[in-house]
Every structure is written in structure tokens, then in C-alpha cells.
Amino acid sequence: MTTVEPIVGVGAVVIDDNRLLLVRRGREPSRGLWAVPGGKVRPGERLREAARRETAEETGLDVVVGEVVWVGEHISEGHHIVLVDFSASLAGGRLRRGDDADEVRWVPLDDAARLPLTPTMYDLLDTLQT
To answer: What residue spans define the domains of the chain?
Structure first.
């Protein structure tokens, strides 16, 4: 059990033409695993703005952030992250990986669960399938 203070993280669930935007994480926690673009909320930053900023930083894409689609948490040694994932729609930009991502790509929604995902991504995908 971790003894660190929880932090707030956000994610953007961008689906375009039945493809999900995914990032292979370049940093801990869950380095090397796939997840929707996202990250930590900065002090004074609104959740939706954080999701938009993180998506742009990690993928080069601009998005319009919508409603909450999933809330959960990741707890592991040294990490306690409260996660809020929002729906988002593509607004522009050019797909490219950011400095904290090892790779970024569009994945057919039905194939996403076949990738090595962060633990919370399986819950999010279950929500999207229902």
C-alpha cells in the first residue's frame, strides 16, 4: 500500500472513424503500456483544459473536450492517481508523439484490448463497449 498523497490525472478518449487514439507511455507509472492521452492536472488548471493540453502535448492533436466518460484510480507503490477521462473530438493538428510518449497511434476500437494496456484502460474499454 502506498503512502503518497493522491494526485488528479485526466485522459481524453478520442474516437475517430471507430479508431481510438492511444499513447504508449514513456514514463512511470506504467511505462511501455498503452493508454489514452492524458496526465496530471496542474495547480489551478481546470480538468477539461488539462485533458486538452495533455492531448496536444502527447499527440500533436487539438481536441474539443466533452463529458466525463469514466472515473477511477490507479494505486501502486509510490503512486495514487485519481483519474477522470473525458470524451473528446478531433479538432485539428498533426499526429506526432510528444516527448513523454514512446509512440502514438490510432487503433481500431475493437483491437485496443489486444495491446498491453495500463490496468485502468481495461475498465475504460468496458465502459465504451456498453
So the answer is: 7-129
pLDDT value, residue 77: 83
Q: Is 58 a catalytic residue?
A: no
H or E segment and range at residue 53: helix 47-59
pLDDT of 53 > 80? The answer is yes
Residue 99 has pLDDT above 80, yes or no: yes
Mean pLDDT of 81-92: 97
pTM value is 0.93
Which fold, 7-129? Nucleoside Triphosphate Pyrophosphohydrolase (3.90.79)
CB atoms within 10 A of CB 128: 16
Q: Match 507511455 to its residue by C-alpha cell.
A: 25
Catalytic residue among 54, 73, 77, 103: 103
**Environment class of 58 (CB within 10 Å of its CB; exposed 0-12, middle 13-18, buried 19+):** buried
